[in-house]
Amino acid sequence: xxxxxxxxxxxxxxxxxxxxxxxxxxxxxxxxxxxxxxxxxxxxxxxxxxxxxxxxxxxxxxxxxxxxxxxxxxxxxxxxxxxxxxxxxxxxxxxxxxxxxxxxxxxxxxxxxxxxxxxxxxxxxxxxxxxxxxxxxxxxxxxxxxxxxxxxxxxxxxxxxxxxxxxxxxxxxxxxxxxxxxxxxxxxxxxxxxxxxxxxxxxxxxxxxxxxxxxxxxxxxxxxxxxxxxxxxxxxxxxxxxxxxxxxxxxxxxxxxxxxxxxxxxxxxxxxxxxxxxxxxxxxxxxxxxxxxxxxxxxxxxxxxxxxxxxxxxxxxxxxxxxxxxxxxxxxxxxxxxxxxxxxxxxxxxxxxxxxxxxxxx
Length: 362
Description:
single chain
């Protein structure tokens, strides 16, 4: 729906919307550069900024008679939010016993008789997860409304790629200098070897950022003539960095993301007339260059990566690997088939199926 100029004759709310769009991009940059928001104060800033930005969106939309752009994934987030909220509703003991007999047994063992209790084994943890889901849904509504239109998608694509490339370059420089400090300032308590992790404590989180950035780089390289060579350079940096992160999930998801992006570009071009010979050669050249960069990285860094790769192989073959924890966690489905144990309550629930308590955070 186009804006109604009669509702905003001086253009004040239109300018407010445009400024708010940059606030949203600023929140993305802050969440990336603030050590992955592992500290409570950084999450508080993001929560407050998201809420304020969403309020501005609602006020300005109402003034100029524009609607929120509701994308399909938002319904999934909203459904997860509602289901998590239901796990926090205080229920009579008889209702808890009927819905979740095992949870009722635990409550009776730990508290004796009780009048009301939520279905979650850890209401505080579930409330924390509920807040995160609410923030995710709110931010997704912001991003899809401001950048869901064709003329604005390029802005968010370039921003994501620039952030991912910056973080990857920082990670590569930190690794080259053998610096244990993120942003050369912060010393995390957890150690992950000399893997590339950018501004994140956990290399898997860095891999998630590259999973977003690498497909953006590939799409721009194949479709945007002005940014083509910059996008190719970023694509090489991102693939090399995620390989050196040693994040298995990051490496796999980055590769899959690029394959999906390439398939979408190919399908889009072939809906009408076939792509030109020059475009096909350029795409083949990009793929060859990226693969060569990966091969050179593996050859040059093999001796440095070998101990970490061997440690990963040991973790996979041992009984304490993630897959083992996931397998044991499936037993919880039978204990809490209808209501679950509560989002954020895995550590409490996992001890019922395994004594490997220190690995419950998987």
